[in-house]
Design a protein that fits this description.
This protein is an alpha/beta fold. The chain contains 18 helices and twelve strands. It has helices at residues 3-15, 20-33, 36-39, 41-45, 48-52, 101-117, 138-152, 171-185, 209-224, 241-252, 275-284, 292-295, 327-335, 351-359, 367-370, 373-387, 393-417, 424-443; strands at 57-66, 72-83, 89-95, 123-129, 161-164, 233-237, 256-262, 265-268, 300-302, 315-318, 340-342, 363-365. Strands 9-8-7-6-10-11-12 form a seven-stranded mixed beta sheet, sandwiched between helices. It has a five-stranded mixed beta sheet with strand order 1-2-4-3-5.
Length: 446
């Protein structure tokens, strides 16, 4: 690493102490974009790198709410508006006990480049709270969301900052958040949030988007090497929206999805996961994945979610959470002959795991490219809201497919141009960085 890039990384680490996820995300990007500064010294002169690693605005606030027993609870809320060079800040809200400043920064930083790759006019941001919706009643979730939005509303808007869902924030939470925003501002600004209900400004395909998009980009990689999903054994971690709809699309394309997981463990079904069962357990009953084996006794349940990577497969799609797939798991996957790893979650593979894949010629697609389908479709939802229009499922799906194909081809082309053919990490990072850097350069020092 050059002295210039190394100094910027050192400053990030010093300024953001005890935030390892953010350090990891910045280091991964900075290492791969280093060759850009040889071709474009003007970026260094304009301090693009120093500016891009620092959020434009960091908002931290308390969220008091009352539980069903009448007790006052207090959580912490976050919104980090990272970069608006391409458009309004865009990124999800995560409600999970693990949320703290470092998690939100890492997610917001990744979002800058992911959003740039979509080709849509959206900047990067992220937010959330350490509130845990699990085990809470609908009334408790509603009261929390209303309190959260009572502070957040003053910082967002259709042309300013447009949040969406993430872990712990689905249609229920988006509905409560939007209702409170509408009440406060006295205006039906549909474009202020995405992931809305279909009856009030939401978009078809938004629920399926991240999972479908992941499969579309992997499909394009397979096509690029004269191959297809047909007959491939696939292991997918997680059992939320991303995992469920990646499973759905992969099965449509002829693949055999043999394992899914949640935080308690994983199920293995050699005959192929029965998706209707999983959808009912996870989406309707809000149950645990282990309940799957009660209906399909030939399947096996293992009470350790990370052990899912011991299952032999052709394609691995980590779709659960950050750093879920480590070096040891990567070595097991390689030993078992995995050919492709595509990230459906944000940064689910540790740097050591990525190194193992790259050293063993496994095709690896990083999350900022592979899971961009969600935010791409959020941007399509924003377009529909701006037009006061509603597109068909087929039209949105076709646009999503095109965006994911373009992301793959753009990352592949840029990687080759910079002498790193096949390195989609470098390709995606450089492609996203160039778009943002050029926009920042055009707009001056702001």
């Amino acid at each position: 690493m050059s002295n210039y890039v190394s100094n910027v990384l050192d400053k990030v680490t010093e300024r953001n102490a005890n935030e390892p996820e953010f350090h990891q995300a910045v280091k991964e990007v900075l290492e791969s974009i280093e060759p850009v500064f040889d071709k474009h010294p003007e970026y260094k002169d304009a301090g693009i790198l120093e500016r891009i690693v620092e959020p434009e605005r960091q908002i931290i606030f308390r969220v008091p709410w009352v539980d069903d027993e009448g007790n006052v609870q207090v959580n912490r809320g976050f919104r980090f508006e990272f970069n608006s060079a391409l458009g309004p800040y865009k990124g999800g809200l995560r409600f999970h006990p693990s949320v703290y400043a470092g998690i939100v920064k890492f997610l917001g930083f990744e979002q800058i480049f992911k959003n740039a790759l979509t080709g849509r006019p959206i900047g990067g941001g992220k937010g959330g709270s350490d509130f845990d919706p699990k085990g809470k009643s609908d009334a408790e979730v509603m009261r929390f969301c209303q309190s959260f939005m009572t502070e957040l509303y003053r910082h967002i808007g259709p042309s300013t900052d447009v949040p969406a869902g993430d872990i712990g924030v689905g249609g229920r939470e988006i509905g409560y958040l939007f209702g409170q925003y509408k009440r406060i501002v006295n205006s039906f600004d549909a474009g202020v949030l995405t992931g809305k209900g279909l009856d009030w400004g939401g978009s078809l395909v938004r629920t399926e988007a991240t999972g479908y998009g992941l499969v579309y980009i992997v499909e394009e990689l397979l096509k690029d090497h004269d191959d297809s999903f047909e007959g491939k054994d696939i292991v997918i971690s997680g059992s939320g929206n991303v995992a469920i709809y990646a499973t759905e699309k992969a099965q449509e394309l002829g693949a055999n999805v043999i394992a899914l997981s949640d935080s308690s463990g994983y199920v293995y079904d050699s005959e192929g996961i029965k998706l209707d069962t999983v959808k009912r357990i996870k989406e309707v009953e809000r149950g645990r994945i282990k309940e799957y084996v009660e209906e399909h006794p030939s399947a096996e349940y293992v009470a350790e979610s990370f052990d899912i990577w011991n299952v032999e497969c052709d394609i691995a799609l980590p779709c659960a959470t950050q750093n879920e797939l480590d070096e040891d798991s990567a070595k097991v996957l390689v030993e078992h002959g995995v050919k492709i790893v595509g990230e459906g979650a944000n940064m689910p593979c540790t740097p050591e795991a990525v190194e193992v894949f790259q050293e063993n010629d496994v095709f690896y697609i990083p999350g900022k490219a592979a899971n961009a389908g969600g935010v791409a479709t959020s941007a399509i939802e924003m377009t529909q809201n701006g037009m006061w229009d509603s597109w068909s499922f087929e039209k949105v799906d076709a646009e999503l497919n095109k965006i994911m194909v373009d992301i793959y081809n753009n990352a592949s082309t840029i990687a080759k141009e910079y002498g790193m053919e096949g390195d989609l990490v470098a390709g995606a990072n450089i492609a996203g960085f160039l778009k943002v850097a050029n926009s920042m350069l055009d707009q001056g020092v702001v």
